[in-house]
C-alpha cells in the first residue's frame, strides 16, 4: 500500500484537445493516453484531433450501440475505444477495473482512460481546478487520468474541453468523489503499450 503514498504525474507531450460539439470524448481520452508518458514509455507529441476522431469512429463501429460516426454521432465507450486502439496497433492489450484501489494500481504503470457520469458541477471547476462532483447527470464522459496527489487525496485528469477548462485543460477530483463516480457506473482502463514490460 505504501506505493500509493507516492505522488504521480505522468507528463503529457501532446496538446490538450477540444472535442467541441462532437461526442468523441472516448477518442480524445485514448489519444491523450497515447500522447502521455507511461512506465518506460515516452508519449507522442504529434497526437491531436485527427487521431482522436479516427479512434472514436472505429469505437462507434465496435461498440454495442447502433450508429457510426461520422454519419451518426452516437458517443461510445471506454472499452470500445481501447479495442479500437488495439486494432489500430497503438496498444497490445488493456487492464480494466471499477475500483479506486484498482485505479491507483493502474496509475503506477501509466495514464488511463476513465469514464463516469458527468455531473453539472463538473462544468465549472474551482480555482484550484477541483471539480465539485455535484448536480445532475449530463450523460457519460471519458477523460484521461494522469496523476495522483496523495497529500490532498486527489486524482488529476486531462479533459478534452480545450486549454481554457480548469488548469490549462486539466482538473482534479477527490478520492471520495471518484469513488462515488465509479459506484455510479464508471470504469478505469489502463492501455498497455507494445513497449511496456
Automatic annotation (TrEMBL):
Gene3D superfamilies: Cysteine proteinases. It comes from the Bacteria. This is Peptidase C1A papain C-terminal domain-containing protein.
Amino acid at each position: 500500500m505504501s506505493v500509493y503514498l507516492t505522488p504521480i504525474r505522468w507528463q503529457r507531450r501532446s496538446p490538450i484537445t477540444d472535442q467541441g460539439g462532437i461526442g468523441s470524448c472516448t477518442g480524445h481520452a485514448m489519444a491523450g493516453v497515447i500522447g502521455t508518458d507511461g512506465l518506460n514509455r515516452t508519449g507522442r507529441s504529434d497526437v491531436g484531433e485527427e487521431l482522436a476522431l479516427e479512434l472514436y469512429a472505429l469505437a462507434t463501429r465496435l461498440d454495442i450501440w447502433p450508429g457510426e460516426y461520422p454519419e451518426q454521432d452516437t458517443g461510445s465507450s471506454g472499452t470500445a475505444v481501447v479495442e479500437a486502439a488495439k486494432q489500430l496497433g497503438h496498444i497490445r492489450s488493456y487492464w480494466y477495473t471499477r475500483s479506486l484501489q484498482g485505479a491507483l494500481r493502474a496509475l503506477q504503470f501509466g495514464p488511463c482512460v476513465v469514464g463516469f457520469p458527468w455531473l453539472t458541477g463538473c462544468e465549472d471547476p474551482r480555482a484550484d481546478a477541483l471539480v465539485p462532483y455535484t448536480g445532475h447527470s449530463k450523460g457519460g464522459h471519458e477523460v484521461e487520468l494522469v496523476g495522483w496527489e496523495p497529500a490532498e487525496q486527489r486524482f488529476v485528469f486531462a479533459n478534452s474541453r480545450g486549454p481554457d477548462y480548469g488548469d490549462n485543460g486539466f482538473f482534479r477530483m477527490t478520492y471520495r468523489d471518484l469513488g462515488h463516480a465509479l459506484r455510479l457506473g464508471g470504469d478505469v482502463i489502463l492501455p498497455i503499450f507494445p513497449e511496456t514490460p
